[in-house]
Amino acid sequence: MIQTYDPDEWEIFIEEWASGMSPRYVRVQRFGGSGDRGVDVAGFKTDRGFEGEWDCFQGKHYDKSLTPSIAWPEMLKIFLLPVRNPLYKLPTNYSFIAPRGLGTSLAHLVSTPTELKAKFLEQIESGESKPFKELDQTIREAVRVLASATDFSMFGSIEVLTLIQQHGTTPHHAARFGGGLPDRPAFEPPPGEVLPDELVYVHKLIDAYQERYAVVDSVSSIEAHAQAGTHLRRQRESFYRAEALRNFARDSVPSGTFEGLQNELYDAVIETTEADHSDGLERLRQTLEQAINAQLSANALIHVTGPADRRGICHQLANENRLTWVSQI
Fold it and tell me: How far apart are CA 236 and CA 251, in angstroms?
């Protein structure tokens, strides 16, 4: 698959991989395209960006292995950054990433930093290749001085097999390559007491119980009520299952996937919720039934989402004031 990527998709793939290297990086940013100044993807280790410690990932999507003649101009660009703007620091690590890896000559050079440095300085001094030939004398000398003082062990490569294996630990892997999601952790039941972040949807349930049973007007009175007490326990369990699914999604699928599932379920139930019902509890029952039976699209979380999760998402939507069981008008 990666052999078919165009250069832009290859850079996006590298960005996805680098974003999974947390907590190594506080921010990952892609700069690919014209004007990238030799930085396709940067992994910033501090909030100072290029002024602090950072790693550079240079993606090259060619149909052949990388050679020294391909590497020299890219390495030159990274030295030109601080030469032309002293606010920039050289990266701590600079990695070539290519589908077919490094050719034998470049691989040997990268594995012997002293020789790599000597060969690069030869390129500066000879000025035979185009990018070096175009440098004016002042810039050329500044690059030579900086390169001479630099430890060339900063240059390296990341092999494709390693890249794919590490990409597999990111939330982007299943969406990009298919395959199943990891198993969800064991469910932990809700705490005995209603917590502050539950108050909105629980109060909406209280309104529905009050409308149906009259005497039920608080959590304590609900717990003592035969029908309402067991119903509330089931709804809180469903809410916590949906919260666990939200947490699972944060680490397993791309950002926004869970919110997409919430929005799709909202669209599936809103007509039922807004229809006429005998009371708020019946409106809730019909809405939850519609949520369970709704035919949803191929959201990446569908295959790990059960009926209780769908009911819980309805309570999340109520908690966000997107669904209401009893009108207060």
Answer: 23
